[in-house]
Structure formats: structure tokens, C-alpha cells
């Protein structure tokens, strides 16, 4: 025998991904709360994915619109954005000299340059370059505060690891390339740091332009990072106690669902339950990584756990989607919709990135309920207009009830005009309009 090897099993330190949305970093006190959650819960290796602060993404959208459509108030909006972040910094660091004020200034100078030039790309392209800065500002501020609190962390630009195609505002993630980049650039950081702070929602193209992954996409970023790092869990910290059976905006007595299967979770979010982004579940399901939805206001409560095993939830759940539009599409030549036209119609929906929430067809008509986003709907309707007559009904609401029963349906459709309806064994969907009395 010419020797033997002793294998010492390497202790695998588990990885977890935490995601904090805009509401969890909306002011200085909220950022302090995030820091205390991290102090108590960031054991092992933690990647912290953070969104833009408060409603800053909406504000940046206003800035993009003002810039692109040559509105008068670009500079006013930019100043508001700057002062909002300076205000939070002042609440965290005082008005003393702190390098974070330079960080804020630098990002705002970049924004200023962006809006000083004439638009030379598409609206969506400019949108992404501008709106993404909300996440940059927010992570700079949070990471500076954590350092001041003695929590050593590394600030990582997520655009160095999440690569997408150039579908602006809806970047399609290149899994293979992003995984390689995560392994090369993110994992080695854990030799020195146990905490990495990065942005949700944004990525980069191969030409180094910024892309975004769709509104509320930070949950998806967290799930992707979990997938690429084989994390042990993802925790999404929210201002609700977990996944509820209805939006508390519409219902007084909501119930928290303690656990859910991936299947239930993807159905609920697909139909519009806004608690997590619908794209979040797939990467987690693919690697069987559990997702916890927990309250940042009550960080010791267990929240909701979403995982692979378990039984189908029987709780009745209600999902409302407002600001919907119902399109009815009819071939001008009276040809059958399904056999002759559907693939062309679907191609156009995909070309303009219009997501179908519900659809129904008859012999010569196809109805679709979708978000009423004029930026997408107007060009879609224009191109459809070549071959089809398109009618639309604006200001409609899509209601989805999982585990419905007749009493509930009757009650919820009172005083409403039902435009279309669809039932399967567990799910009922209705597109409705308020009837004016
Ligand atoms: N800040 C982005 C948004 O508000 C992404 C996110 O919050 O997940 O849409
Ligand atoms: Mg948000």
C-alpha cells in the first residue's frame, strides 16, 4: 500500500437569501429595523437583496416620463429624489460629513446626465437606465448604515452577476451565464464576508446596459440567487405577517396561510396575489428551496412557508386585479379565431410583452384581460388593427377566487356587471365592471 488519504468533510456553511422590499426601507427607522433583523437573523452566509426605498421606483418612473415626453418638471423630480435619499441618510448618519452623501450625489449626477441628453434609444431602454438607480441608491445607503453598526458587509453591483437579454423592462435572465458569474464573483466574497448587500430587480446586457426584470422583480432576483448558490432558504421580509388569503386593502378579516405548496403559491401569484412576484417560485421549485414570507414588523413570527411537500390549500383565497382592460379581437375577414388566427395574435402579445391574465374565445372572437398599460396596449392594438377589429372595455376588474363556493360568488358579484367568467374545479375568474346606480 503506497499511502492513504484521509478525507475531512468540509463543513458546509449554509447560504440564505434575504429580500427586503421598498416598504422595509422607506425611512430611517425602517433601515434601522433592517439592520436589527440582520443582526439577529443573518447567521452563516447571507445575501441581502434590497429594492428601491419606499415609492422611489414610481418617482423614477415619473422622471422617465417627464424626460421622454419632454415634461417641464424633470429637474424638480430629480431634486425630490435626491432630497428623499438625503433625508433618510440624515436620519441615519446625522448631517455630519459621511461618504454616503457623496454616493447619493454621484448617482444623482448620473441621473442628471441621463436626462440632459436627447433620448436616442427606445423608451424602455431609457426607462431601465434611469429607474435602476433607485436600487443603487437604496443599497448604498443601507450598506453604509450596516457598516456604521459594525455589520461588515460587501456592496455588490448585481449587474456584475445577473445577465439578461436586451428586452428592456422585462429582461430575460441568461441562467447559464449568470450562474457562472455568481460562482466566479459572488461566492468567493464569502471567504472574507458573511454578508453581501446587493440590488433586486436589475441586471445587465452583454453590452453593459442596465435592464430591469419587471416591476416588483426583486423577489425574483432573490430566487435566482438562491438557485445559483444552492441556498438553504429564501426569506422575503414584508409588511404583512405572511401570505394572506386576501389583500387587507379589500377585506377586513384576512387569514394567514401557514404553509403553501409551490403549486398553490404559483397559482395564487400568477392570478395576481401581490405578495410575491409570480416568477419567484419556479427557480425555487426547481431546486426545492423553501421560501419563507415573514413580517419585518414581527420578525420573530414564523410567517408562511412555501415548499415542495404538503397538501393543497383548501382556504378560500381572493385576488383582485384593478386597472385591467378587456380586449375583444375579431378577424375582419370572418375567419375562425382558433384555427386561423390565434398563433398570430399570441405572437403580437409576446412581441409587446403583454401578459394575458385571462382569455376566452368564441367562433370569431377572442377576449383577453390584461393590465391597462397604455405604453404596451396602444402599439399592440395598432398592430392588431391590421387584420382584426379590436374593441375594448377599460376600467374593469379581474377577480379570482380559489376554492370558491356559490354564496361567496353571489356576494362578490353583487352590483357588478360580469363581462366574462370562467370556472374550473378550484378556481373561478370573473372580469367585472362596477354598475352605476
Ligand atoms: N423597486 C422595484 C419596484 O418597485 C422592484 C421591487 O420592488 O421589487 O417595482
Ligand atoms: Mg417595490
Structure description:
- The structure is a single chain.
- The protein is α/β, with parallel strands linked by helices and 437 residues long.
- The chain contains 13 helices and 16 strands.
- The protein has two domains: 293 residues, 3-Layer(aba) Sandwich (Carbamate kinase), CATH 3.40.1160; 118 residues, VC0802-like, CATH 3.30.2130.
- An eight-stranded mixed sheet has the order 3-4-2-1-7-9-10-8. The protein has a six-stranded antiparallel sheet with strand order 12-13-11-14-16-15.
- Helices cover 37% and strands 23% of the residues.
- Strand 15 and strand 16 form a beta hairpin.
Radius of gyration: 24 Å
The CATH architecture category of the largest domain equals 3-Layer(aba) Sandwich
CATH superfamily of the largest domain: Acetylglutamate kinase-like
Strand percentage? 15-25%
| Largest sheet, strands/sense/barrel | 8 strands, mixed
The level of helicity is 25-40%
Envelope shape: globular
Strand-pairing-aware structural class: alpha/beta
CATH class of the largest domain: Alpha Beta
Number of DSSP-assigned strands: 16
Ligand inventory: aspartic acid, magnesium ion
The ordered string of helix (H) and strand (E) elements is EHEHHHHHEHEEEHEEHHEEEHEEHEHEE
Keywords:
VC0802-like, 13 helices, Carbamate kinase, 437 residues, 23% strand, single chain, binds aspartic acid, 2 domains, 37% helix, alpha/beta, binds magnesium ion
Amino acid at each position: 500500500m503506497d499511502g492513504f488519504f484521509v478525507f475531512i468533510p468540509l463543513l458546509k456553511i449554509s447560504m440564505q437569501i434575504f429580500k427586503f422590499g421598498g416598504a422595509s426601507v422607506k425611512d430611517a427607522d425602517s433601515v434601522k429595523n433592517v439592520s436589527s433583523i440582520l443582526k439577529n437573523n443573518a447567521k452563516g452566509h447571507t445575501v441581502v437583496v434590497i429594492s428601491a426605498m419606499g415609492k422611489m421606483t414610481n418617482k423614477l418612473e415619473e422622471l422617465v416620463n417627464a424626460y421622454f415626453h419632454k415634461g417641464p418638471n424633470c429637474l424638480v423630480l430629480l431634486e425630490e429624489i435626491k432630497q428623499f435619499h438625503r433625508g433618510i441618510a440624515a436620519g441615519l448618519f446625522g448631517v455630519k460629513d459621511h461618504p454616503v452623501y457623496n454616493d447619493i450625489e454621484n448617482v444623482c449626477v448620473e441621473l442628471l446626465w441621463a436626462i440632459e441628453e436627447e433620448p436616442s434609444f427606445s423608451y424602455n431602454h431609457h426607462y431601465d437606465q434611469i429607474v435602476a438607480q433607485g436600487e443603487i441608491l437604496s443599497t448604498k445607503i443601507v450598506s453604509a448604515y450596516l457598516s456604521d453598526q459594525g455589520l461588515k458587509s460587501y456592496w455588490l453591483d448585481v449587474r456584475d452577476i445577473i445577465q439578461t437579454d436586451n428586452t428592456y423592462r422585462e429582461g430575460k435572465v441568461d441562467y447559464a451565464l449568470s450562474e457562472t458569474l455568481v460562482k466566479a464573483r459572488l461566492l468567493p466574497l464569502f471567504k472574507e464576508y458573511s454578508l453581501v448587500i446587493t440590488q433586486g430587480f436589475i441586471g445587465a446586457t452583454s453590452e453593459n446596459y442596465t435592464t430591469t426584470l419587471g416591476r416588483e422583480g426583486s423577489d425574483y432576483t432573490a430566487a435566482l440567487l438562491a438557485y445559483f448558490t444552492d441556498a438553504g432558504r429564501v426569506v422575503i421580509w414584508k409588511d404583512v405577517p405572511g401570505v394572506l388569503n386576501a389583500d387587507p386593502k379589500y377585506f377586513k378579516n384576512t387569514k394567514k396561510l401557514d404553509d403553501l405548496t409551490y403549486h398553490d403559491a404559483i397559482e395564487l401569484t400568477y392570478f395576481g396575489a401581490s405578495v410575491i412576484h409570480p416568477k419567484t417560485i419556479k427557480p425555487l421549485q426547481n431546486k426545492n428551496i423553501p421560501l419563507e414570507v415573514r413580517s419585518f414588523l414581527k420578525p420573530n413570527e414564523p410567517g408562511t412557508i412555501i415548499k415542495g411537500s404538503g397538501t393543497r390549500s383548501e382556504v378560500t383565497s381572493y385576488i383582485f386585479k384593478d386597472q385591467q382592460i378587456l380586449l375583444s379581437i375579431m378577424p375582419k375577414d370572418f375567419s375562425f379565431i382558433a384555427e386561423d388566427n390565434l398563433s398570430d395574435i399570441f405572437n403580437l402579445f409576446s412581441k409587446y410583452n403583454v401578459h394575458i391574465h385571462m382569455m376566452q374565445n368564441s367562433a370569431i372572437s377572442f377576449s383577453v384581460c390584461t393590465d391597462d398599460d397604455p405604453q404596451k396596449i396602444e402599439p399592440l392594438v395598432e398592430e392588431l388593427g391590421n387584420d382584426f377589429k379590436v374593441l375594448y372595455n377599460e376600467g374593469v376588474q379581474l377577480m379570482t377566487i380559489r376554492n370558491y363556493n356559490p354564496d361567496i360568488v353571489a356576494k362578490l358579484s353583487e352590483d357588478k356587471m360580469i363581462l366574462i367568467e370562467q370556472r374550473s374545479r378550484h378556481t373561478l375568474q370573473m372580469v367585472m365592471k362596477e354598475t352605476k346606480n
